[in-house]
Description:
- By secondary structure, the chain is mostly helical.
- It has helices spanning 24-43, 62-69, 81-101, 116-125, 152-159, 171-180, 213-220, 227-238, 242-248, 282-302, 313-324, 335-344, 364-375, 379-391, 399-409, 416-454; strands at residues 12-14, 48-50, 104-107, 132-134, 141-144, 259-263, 272-276.
- The strands form three sheets. It has a three-stranded mixed β-sheet. Strands 1-2 form a two-stranded parallel ribbon. It has a two-stranded antiparallel sheet with strand order 6-7.
- Strand 4 and strand 5 (141-144) form a beta hairpin.
- Residues 19, 74, 79, 81-82, 85-86, 195-197, 202-203, 205-206, 208 line the site of iron/sulfur cluster (SF4).
Amino acid sequence: xxxxxxxxxxxxxxxxxxxxxxTPLVVGIIKDTLDKMGKAALALQLPIVxxxxxxxxxxxxxxxxxxxRGYPAPTRQFRWxxxxxxxxxxxxxxxxxxxxxxxxxxxxxxxxxxxxxxxxVMRKHRIEGSRLSRHTSLPNAFVFTPIxxxxxxxxxxxxxxxxxxxxxxxxxxxxxxxxxxxxxxxxVIDTSTPSxxxxxxxxxxxxxxxxDRAMDGLIETGHKWMMPLRDFRxxxxxxxxxxxxxxxxxxxxxNGTVTFxxxxxxxxxxxxxxxxxxxxxxxxxxxxxxxxxxxxxxVDRDNPGPKYELISKPELEAIRLQWRxxxxxxxxxxxxxxxxxxxxxxxxxxxxxxxxxxVFAGGxxxxxxxxxxxxxLPSELFMKLIELELxxxxxxxxxxxxxxxxxxxxxxxxxxxxxxMRKREQLGSLHGREVEEKKLHEQYKTLVGMIGDxx
Length: 455
Ligand code: SF4
C-alpha cells in the first residue's frame, strides 16, 4: 500500500550511532548503506531523512577519557563508556526532535531474545492496548519494536527474502556477520539496552569482554591488518586485571587523594583495607598515545579499504588540554605534539593550537622537577601552586585564591609510602574504634537486660 505524496507529512529520520572506535569494517558497511538509503528515499519521494551518525562530544570520546583523563579501560564494574559515547549523543538527538515535533516514535530493531532484562524493561514500559512503549527516561518519546518477537534466523530469512528496498542485497552484511562469530549490536538508546561488548560488534577497543570474538573472527577470515588493533585492545584489557592494576594506575585519585576503603573479609575473616586506585599514570598515557599513533601508521599502510582514522586531530587537542591541566601530573612539557611528531615524522603537517595556556612548554617542567628533587619537594605540588597563582593573575578579587590554596595543599602530596602508612593507620584506628563501640554497645545491652531481670 502506498501513501499518496501529499499525505507523506511525517518525517522519518534514519539515525545510527558511531562511537568513533567502532569495528572498522562495520563503519564502512553502515556508511555505504546509509548513502544508498538517502539516495533511494530521494528518488522515491519519501520523507525519509538519513542523518549522519551521532557521535560522542570530542571531550567525551574513548581516547580523550582513557588517554586524556586516564580513565582505566572499561570493565563491567566501571563501564564509563556507554553513557558518554552512545546514550548521551542519542538522547541529545531524540530530545532535539521532541523539541521540534512535540513527540517522537523510535523504531528499534531490538528483540526480546537478545536479553531477558531488556525484554523485562520493555514489558514494564509498554502502554496498555498499544504496541508502543514509553522511553525509559525521555518524555514524549515512544518506542516501537516491530521485530520484538523475532529470532535471529527470522531476521536473516527476511533479509534474504528479497532485495533491499534501497537497492542491492544484504550479502555484505551477511558476510560480515558470518566472518566474525559475532552476535548483534543493537542501537543503544538507554541503559536497559544491552550494549555491545558481549561477543557482538562493539567498539574495537572494548575491554568489557575478555576476548573480542568478533574481531578474532574477522582476522581469521582474512582481515589480518586488524591484528595490531586486537593486540592493542588486549594490552588495554591486561591493564584491567587485578594483578596488573597497580603497575598502570596512579595511587592518587583525580581528586588528589589516596583512598582506602574497608571491605568485608571472606567467610567471616577480618575486614581488609583496599585501595581505590586512580587514573592511568601519565607515563602510561604517553605510551598509549604513542602506540595508538603507531597503529595508525600500520593501519594506513595495510588496510585495503577506505582510510580508517583511529584518533582525530580535535581529540589530540582535547588530550593535550587534559594533560596540561591534569590534577596530579600536569604536563608542562606539552608532550602531545612531540609524541605526534616522533611517530608521524618531522614533516607531519599538523597545526597545533597556539595557546597562551602553555606558558611552561619550554623545559621549565624539567627545571622545576630537578630543583624540587634537589630540595626534597613534591614537584607536582609546586607546579600546581604556580599554575594556581597564574590563573589568578589580573583578577581584582583574589578572595577565592586562599580557598583554592587550602584545597590544593590538602591533597596527598607527600611521599607515597608515607601517605599509605598514614591512611592505613587512620583506617585501622577507625576500625578499632568501631569494634570498641560495638563491644560497649553489647555490654550496655547485657547490663540493661540484667537490670530488667533484677527489677
Ligand atoms: S562496546 Fe564496549 S567500549 Fe563500546 S560502549 Fe559498549 S561497553 Fe563501552
